[in-house]
């Protein structure tokens, strides 16, 4: 197979971690007899600096022409005071919309090797954590119209619109049901149906859609309670499906309780067309350029890409196994180092994974 990959290193630690992940991709491809063609495209702050636009036309075209997209991270304090219309984040939101990437899969998994780095008590973590957050990614308050600033009673006021159509809800619930079916068969739909009209429609459509998946057990939870339950008893969850803004918040929470935010990949997919893979963590400007970032989330994003975009299960598995073996040997980047094992930097961690493939 020939894989055409568009690389968007982006900002902060993005370029360092993407460099390591690409080496891993090339090694796995060679081992299994595939070829990789890569093209790099600008996004975020790097694109603002180069061409004054966080999402240049050429980037959208390069992504559309690729089989899959690998993204590092976008944003940083350098662009915090910039005109909000061209903030780095606009690049990320724009590419999600342009590629129709409505479903965002964010696994929150506790690596047994890293149990000591988890933030919860051992009795709460129990046998480990394995939650999949399915976040709607192209709707809700992030994109809803109308939005903007106005004047109300002589003072400034600002507003956004959290809006979902039935078809938008249905397609993301369907994705979540399909995923639940291949895992623990439990789906928790998170909403705020006790207050929001949009959530009441969400719940109604979720019930209707999930009814087509009788093998999947559907439950509902208000988002405030879900935030609490994730800390109190995270192992009650298998798959969570929720709208864009709630999913943004809950997926950060779910990933940090594992203690492994530097370890977690994500996939953003549409219906056909190239999907986008990226680490869950951000651009970490404070440690950028110092070769100390953790490249494993990006390396595992390559594994997710092989699995979800190309259906290459054995290839994906070889990356997962290599990462596990490097962790089992005690190698740790700073973010997952809790006193034991050997601390390594970004390129050294990349080289260790390469060596284990
Ligand atoms: C994420 C990020 C983005 C989001 C930002 C950078 C626009 O927080 O991918 O979760 O809010 O979706
Ligand atoms: Mg977020």
Automatic annotation (TrEMBL):
Binding positions (substrate): 96, 106, 135, 224
Signal peptide: none
Marked site: Important for catalysis: 142, 192
EC number(s) per entry: 1.1.1.85
SMART domains: Iso_dh
Keyword NAD attributed: yes
Gene Ontology terms, MF aspect: 3-isopropylmalate dehydrogenase activity; magnesium ion binding; NAD binding
PROSITE patterns: IDH_IMDH
Location in the cell: Cytoplasm
HAMAP family from the UniProt entry: LeuB_type1 (MF_01033)
Protein name: 3-isopropylmalate dehydrogenase
Organism listed in the record: Desulfomicrobium baculatum (strain DSM 4028 / VKM B-1378 / X) (Desulfovibrio baculatus)
């Amino acid at each position: 197979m020939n894989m055409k990959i568009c690389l968007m290193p982006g900002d902060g630690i993005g370029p360092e971690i993407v460099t390591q992940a690409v080496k891993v991709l090339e090694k796995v491809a060679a081992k299994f007899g595939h070829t990789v063609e890569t093209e790099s495209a600008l996004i975020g702050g790097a694109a603002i600096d180069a061409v004054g636009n966080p999402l240049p036309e050429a980037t959208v075209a390069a992504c559309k022409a690729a089989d899959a997209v690998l993204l590092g991270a976008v944003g940083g304090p350098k662009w915090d005071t910039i005109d909000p219309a061209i903030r780095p984040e606009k690049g990320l939101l724009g590419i999600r919309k342009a590629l129709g990437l409505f479903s965002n899969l964010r696994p929150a998994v506790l690596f047994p090797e890293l149990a000591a780095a988890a933030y919860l008590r051992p009795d709460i973590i129990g046998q480990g954590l394995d939650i999949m957050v399915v976040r709607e990614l192209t709707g809700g308050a992030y994109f809803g119209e109308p939005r903007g600033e106005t004047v109300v009673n002589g003072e400034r006021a600002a507003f956004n619109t959290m809006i979902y159509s039935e078809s938008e809800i249905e397609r993301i619930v369907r994705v979540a049901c399909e995923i639940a079916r291949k895992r623990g068969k439990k789906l928790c739909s998170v909403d705020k149906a006790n207050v929001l009209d949009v959530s009441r429609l969400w719940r109604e459509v979720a019930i209707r859609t999930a009814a087509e998946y009788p093998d999947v057990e559907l439950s509902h939870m208000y988002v405030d309670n879900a935030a609490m339950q994730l800390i109190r008893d995270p192992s009650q969850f298998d798959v969570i499906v929720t709208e864009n803004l709630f999913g943004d918040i809950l997926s950060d929470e779910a990933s940090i309780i594992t203690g492994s935010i530097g370890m977690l990949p994500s996939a953003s997919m549409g219906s056909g067309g190239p999907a986008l893979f990226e680490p869950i963590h951000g651009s970490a400007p404070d440690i950028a350029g110092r070769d100390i970032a953790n490249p494993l989330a990006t390396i595992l994003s390559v594994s997710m890409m092989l699995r979800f975009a190309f259906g290459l299960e054995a290839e994906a598995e070889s990356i997962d196994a290599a990462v596990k073996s490097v962790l089992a040997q005690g190698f740790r980047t700073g973010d997952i180092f809790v006193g034991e094992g050997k601390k390594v930097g970004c390129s050294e961690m990349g080289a260790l994974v390469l060596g284990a493939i």
